[in-house]
Structure formats: structure tokens, C-alpha cells
Automatic annotation (TrEMBL):
Its main location: membrane. One of its GO terms (biological process) is phosphoenolpyruvate-dependent sugar phosphotransferase system. Residues 100-452 form the PTS EIIC type-1 domain. One of its GO terms (cellular component) is plasma membrane. It comes from Enterococcus silesiacus. This is PTS system sucrose-specific EIIBCA component. One of its GO terms (molecular function) is protein-N(PI)-phosphohistidine-sugar phosphotransferase activity. The lineage of its organism: Bacteria, Bacillati, Bacillota, Bacilli, Lactobacillales. It is an enzyme of class 2 (transferase).
Amino acid sequence: MRYEEESKKIIELVGGKSNINSLVHCATRLRFSLKNTKKADKESLEKLPYVMSVVNSGGQYQVVIGSKVPDYYAAIQSLADLNEDAPKTEKKLSFNYVFEVISGAFSPLIPAMAGSGMIKAVLTILVEMKLLADTSSTYMVLSAASNAIFYFLPVFLGITLTKKIGGNMYVGGVIGAALLEPSFTGMIGQEKLDFLGINLNVVDYATTIFPIFVAIFIYSFVDKFLRKIIFRDLQLFAVPMFSLMIMVPLTALLFGPFGTVIGDALSQAVMWLIGKSALLSGIVLGGGMPFMVMFGLHWGFSPITLENLTVMGGDPIEGMAVAAVFAQIGIAIGFYLKSKKHSKMKALAGPLALTGLFAGVTEPIVYGLILRYKRLLPIVAISGAIGGAICGVTGVTMNAYVFHNIFSIPVYTPKVGYFIGVGSALIAGAVLTYFFGVKEDEMTDFLPETDQGEDDFQETTVEMSANVESTTETVVYAPLAGTVIPLKEVDDDVFSSEIAGKGVAIIPTDNKVVAPFDGTVVAIFPSKHAIGLKSHGGSELLIHIGINTVNLNGEHFETKVEMGDTITRGQTLLVFDREAIEQAGYAMTSPVILTDAPSMETLNIINDSDSVTPATQLFVVGSSKEDTNQ
């Protein structure tokens, strides 16, 4: 209630709801795009006790709030009828962006797909063990639970894709749902159909991927265009109405058939390769599937697999690709065996291996291990190719759509070829990883945490031991490698005036942010350009990468942790593309500031004008200046 009342005053003083074009927020401030800045009352805004400052810069009217900015942002979004369905900031179409969209669309669905796949595996086991009949009502209910996510995939993808690309995500879901609506599906197989005189060929879009991807991509432009030409007060119903009237017929007439043609062509190409050489196709699918996962391409095989299951009763593609999954599990097992007790890698690799074995979800292995240790790239390819070749030669097929895990063993035939293939992939992955997977200079995370970084930090520890005394102090290490400058030199009034907090700024020379102390992640901003942390001692720290980089809307940033995660010093929190950000015209000066009053009062800056690494101490919090100079 408090934030709503205070937000009403902010809306009033920026000129009212009708004066707001859009609103975003960064780590410390509300960033309004106003129709007329002259209507805003800066003096009255700055008198509000919950507003620190007001800055009119870069085409944005910035109201500085501090750490509570997300609460005010949410309240203003609701009160001013500003919603997430507004058009997204346009991103450049590129190879990386395409795969970012694919990955972003499927990522929210992975838990539902994994859970549904596990139900399928359990049902298969129960039927094979004669514990449940596949004609019983119990089976039908559970089968519905396992099939729904796949059957209605166009609906779910319509929502997740639109959220990623732009537009109203529920309208995107309706576009997908229209293809599955009984009146539409009732026309499947009928001849001489038309829409306004145009020939109409209705096909079954259940479980398909390609049509909805094409449709939502076009819809994002249609939504943007309609919002430009339709009067604002009519947009609530007019934009969705015209969007559906345009997109559903276009999808049925053009995009749907076009996507189906692409899917058929890809299916034919893969099946042609399988027909030519089971050995070669096994090598390609087993060795190449992890790389397809990295780029999101593996989802393109889903409609082919579903088609093969329907027409042929079994799918040879997944029968070979299963080897890639067990090769990745082998890599996690290899690292688990390689790492010492009480090490970070032991704690990481074990759960990753179990997740792969029991759920068939290996994306964490790909992104958490394989892409981190480049030696694993050829290892996963070789291991998967060995297993895939064996599965291909022995004719292994997957006979129900499941995630590849130990519970889904009953759906593969022949069993002998399957066990030899996946066993070879797993063993090869584990053995090669154990002996060749990591360089000697990359072994830090494989050692017990009490010994980690001893060589790296010994010099700094000796140097600082005479200066820092306490066991109750919070020592803040540099979260970035680079050059330190005082906050007063930052080209941003909010930071340079220390309104947002006290600390320093770092001009980074590297592309990652690491934890400066042991603590907790308390804030991750949607634009990923800033992260808030809290130490075990209670100090609150904000790390803000670049100036005005909130405008990039997350492009060139990738978070490695989630809200509420417990962190340890030196752990990677966020990575960014420094060169790309600079090329986009943004300064990389990155404030590192304490935002809670008790920490600011007892802050002693150790380093504010020198080069630093994550082994360098920046601040000491909780002791007097005399203590730090003893």
C-alpha cells in the first residue's frame, strides 16, 4: 500500500499518466520517457522523502529512488496502465540473436517437458510390467498429463516466443491455440477449402514448432505497427483484435504450410542420411547433438521425431542422439571423480550427473561445464560419436517421446545395441574427461575450498595482513579486473554525487563479474546490467556495469546466478561483451557501491586509483580508519 500511495505522487509530479510514454528501471532509478518534460515538476519531486534526486538526461527523465526501485516500478506500471505487453526495444537480427530467441522460448518449458517426459517413462514401465493397461481410464488420465505440453506446444511457444521477441504474449498464445481449435482442426483432410477465395490447405499443427516460430516473428512487427497507428485509448482491444484477424489467417494460409515444408525438408534430409549410412548418421547425430543443443537447434528435431513415432512407430534419430546425452553425463561423472572432496567442482558435477541420469536434462552440463572447459568440446563430440555409431549400426530406435534418462530405458529397442551404445558413450566421456578434460592451470575449482586460490591470493594476503585486522569486518574484494577511479570522476551525476551509495568505479579490462565476498544475491535486474549482493555481515553492494547500459535491455549480458543464490568469493556472477557494449556507444565505467547506511558510515576505501584484480581488496566495512592504518 505504501508504494502505491507514494507512486501516485510520482506519477502526478511527472505530469500524470497521459504524459508517460514508457517506463523502465535500472539499479537505482526510474527512467521515464515523457511526452513533455516541461510538465514534470523536478523541484517537488526532489522534495519527496523517498526520492533521492531527479536527472533529465539522454532523453530520459530519471527519478532516483535507490534499492527499492523495483517496488516503485511495479506500482507505477500498474497505476499508469503500463504493462509488459508494450513493444520491446528492437534488437538487431543476428545469428546469436536467433539462437538466443530459440533458447529463451524453450527454457521456461523445460521443467514441464521434463516432468511430462518422466510420466511417459513411468507409464511405459508400468505397461511393460503388466501393472497398468494402456486401455484403462487411469492410463488415459496420466497419458493426458504427459502429452499435453507436447500437443499444445504451439500455444506455449506462442506465449514464450512473444515474451522474448515482443508483443502481447497472450495474443501470441491465442495464435497458436487457433491452430488447434476444434473448428479449425475439423477441416483437416477436407478438400476445396478457401479463405476469402484463397485456397486453404489445413494440416495438423499439434506438436509443431516451425509454423509458430514464423508466425510470432511476423506478429511482433504487426503488433508494433498497429500500436503506432491506433489511437492509444483504443489499443486495449483494437490491437489484439486486428492482430488476430491478420495473423491467424496468414498463419493458416502461408506461415503454417511454409513451416511444414521446412520441417518436411529437414526430416527428409536426416532420413536420407540415415538411409545412406547408419554408421555415418550415428556419428553425426551422436557427436553433433551437444553442439546443436548449444545453439538451440536440437528442438528442430522434435517435429521430425514426433512424425516418425506416428508413421513408423519408432524414431531412429533419437535412437542415435541418446548417445550424446550419456556422453555429457559421462563428462560430469569424469569431473566428479577428478575433483577433490569439499571442492566446488565436486559439489557441482555430482548433481549435474544425477540430473542427467534421472531427468535427461543436460543443458546445465553443456553450459556449466563443456563451454567453460574448452577441452571438453572434442571429448563430448568423440564420446557421442562412438555411442551414436554403435546405436546407428545396431538400429536402435526410440518408441515413445521421452527425455533420455535411465527411467526411459524400456522405450528403446533393441536393448543390446542401446546398452552398448550409451554405455560406450558414458564410459568414453568419463575416461577422456578424467585424463584430458582440464588443464593444470584450471584446477582451482577441483581442489578443496580451504586450499583454493592459495597461490593466487597469497601475495595480496601477506600485503594486506598488516593493514586489515578484524574478524568482524567485511572485506570487499574487486568484482572486476580493471582500473579503479573515484566515484566523483564517473560521468553520471547520480553516482558521482554519491546519492546512490558510496564506493569506487572500475573501468573493466575483462568480461566478467565475480563475487567480492561470501553472501547472497539480493537483486538481479531484468536488463542484467547490474546485480545487488548482501554479505554475511549485512553489507549491501551494488555492481553496475557501464553507464546507461540499462538501455541495452540485457543484450551483451548473461547472468550466471539467480535471485536468492548463496555465493562464495571469486564465483562468476555475470559475464558481458565489453567490446560490443562499447561499440554500441556506452561507457564501461562500472560503479561498485555500498548502498546500506550502516556500511556507508563505516566504509574505508583501500584502493581508489590503481589497477585491480579479483584478488585485490577495495573496501573494509565495519572498522575505523585508524584500525585499517595500524
